[in-house]
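New here. Your pick:
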Amino acid sequence: MPHDRLLTTTIGAYPKPGCTPIGDWFPDPDDTEAGARGEGLLKRWQRADYEQQLAEAGESAEAAFVAAIEEVVRDQVAAGIDIPTDGEVRRENYIFYQCRNMNGVDFEHLTEKVARDGAFTARVPTITGPVTPRDLVLARDWRIAQRVTDRPVKITLPGPMTIIDSLANTFYPDPGAQGRALAEALNAEVRSLAAAGCRHIQVDEPVFARKPEPALDYGIENLERVFHGVPEGVQRIVHMCCGYPSALDNPDYPKADPQAYFQLAHAMDEAAIDAVSIEDAHRPNDLSLLERYTRTTVLFGVVNIGRSRVEPVEEIAERLGRALEHIDPARLVAAPDCGLGLLGRDLAVAKMTNLCTAAHGVGCG
């Protein structure tokens, strides 16, 4: 990797190619009426036809998934992304995909639950017994994506607190105990990824920004459990976004308190992680926040994934330049705010291309 310019990465999700054998869990960016009604947001939480779609695809499903993963990795590399992801192509929902491969989670009997601090209500799977790992699947996904490029591919997975917020629970006595069990199950996936050769592993904890007090109480401790035993040389990353819109160009969706990043910064900087991903495009931060990270790398969101407007190169470069007044360039990585799945392919490519042009043009000397 070059050290004379800023590196770039994506966060996780990417628009699913047409060959993907399951539907996208993001709303159609052209269906503005459904998005305004919030149908896209609920659709991605209540998709009940995942197994049926796989069954209908039959033996052709695996080849279609491979082709889709290869396409999204090539898109990112062509745009200039230094550390691409697999685009979460196999996932009908990034949380449920992981939990389908755990014991103790019931997908047959759904429970109505208010999620994301009241942002929406959905019918969700329920934890009914001890959570333990069953099938480890992410190393397979990483191998397919890594075959496409010599650039290091990052793999993402949901964190314990975010899973807790996304499932119902009738088994564990409290969120801390529930989080410990989930962390141990996720740790098996992380160790499997590391053993396969993946060197960039990202745990998504958007709930940290919405619930900083529980994050400080037990969330960060359980996050560290997810990465327990990961060898040196593996980047341990956590993503903390502030909330996803239900549709493009819908700015009034519920967001986390911007002060949450400040509440969490010191503890995150002291935690056993290497990098923190934060949003800055849809709601710019007081950049003194970056000074609170004295050792941790910051994946800095400078592309808004909830707007169709493509940020000009000069605008992105200016924001990165201002950020570099507060943090060592070796610890700043340019990124979108969150996953690109809401944008559609053309907008995603346009935004990534401008992101990379801007970041790669910012000197680090």
Notes: Residues 175-196 form the longest helix (22 residues). The radius of gyration is 19 Å.
